[in-house]
Amino acid sequence: MTPPILYDFELSGNCYKVRVFASMINLGLVLQNVEVLKGETRTEEFARLNPWQQIPVLRDGDFVVQDSQAILTYPALKYTPQWIDTTPMGMGAIVEWLSYAAKEVSNGPQLSRLKFLDPHEDIDLVRAQAIGLKVLRLLDNSLASRDWLCLGRPTIADIAVYPYVGLCRQGKLPLDGYPHIHPWLA
Amino acid sequence: MTPPILYDFELSGNCYKVRVFASMINLGLVLQNVEVLKGETRTEEFARLNPWQQIPVLRDGDFVVQDSQAILTYPALKYTPQWIDTTPMGMGAIVEWLSYAAKEVSNGPQLSRLKFLDPHEDIDLVRAQAIGLKVLRLLDNSLASRDWLCLGRPTIADIAVYPYVGLCRQGKLPLDGYPHIHPWLA
């Protein structure tokens, strides 16, 4: 079996979440490095692979999927259904967190970090950090009464949310004062 | 059977997508109006229902789910599986578009419209409209070769993306020049 190809950039938390999940479920990946900071997602060739010109992208034979939440969904359903749940309530709960990862976690912790990695990025840092603080507070509240984000067990919801939370110090969002986030990250 | 309760606000495109999907699949809903502009999502009572203090929220018996993408997922799986797909490739493709609805469509067309509905909102209109233009261009390209966003048939991916695209004139994003978006909206 030819392993899937992950179009990858090491510094990206969205790529990291795919790599870490693949490692946890023993899924071999061929990593194809894309030098984002050198403009390699902005080429016509890359646009043919992914019109949104974003990483990560996963290619498995003829099937191509982009967006880190979707990329987690695909191998989870294919190889490790214990990491996902296709019941109406189970998938509803997981998609709730996948949307949260795509929107709030991206607009808050991810953009805050990106502004410090690349100060030329057109990012409203005050706004991103305000969203980041709200994400941390609500996440800490959620984890006060449970070990995992949903369904009482680890799922792709946890994998989707945690990288930019774990990296949020790089966006000058300290994790002190959020006692329930630490054991979950660990 | 007691119908699910939708915590709803008429002007919200995210609530609209849930109402329209429920109507398409003949799912009765009890609409509970939440006066967002009067601060009714910012009360402690509402925070107990949804800590993120956003609408829409769906309550079906003891099950509570927030986020419009997750709310579409739940009744689709429960009542109308033809609107969703739980195969690895099918769900991967759908989640790709759900994330797109949660992030790009929200950051672009949705925020542009909101700024014109409520000029006091702290929104960078130039940035939101730039994202909006990119969303429209890429969506038009995607729809040039197909009738539906994925899987060759209507799914919750279409329902998740279309309201803020259909409403984007209200964010001063004209739909002229996107010939493939019109038949899809219709």
Automatic annotation (TrEMBL), chains A, B:
It comes from the Bacteria. GO terms for biological process: glutathione metabolic process. Keywords: Transferase. Residues 2-83 form the GST N-terminal domain. One of its GO terms (molecular function) is glutathione transferase activity. Residues 87-186 form the GST C-terminal domain. Homodimer. This is Glutathione S-transferase. The lineage of its organism: Bacteria, Pseudomonadati, Pseudomonadota, Alphaproteobacteria, Hyphomicrobiales.
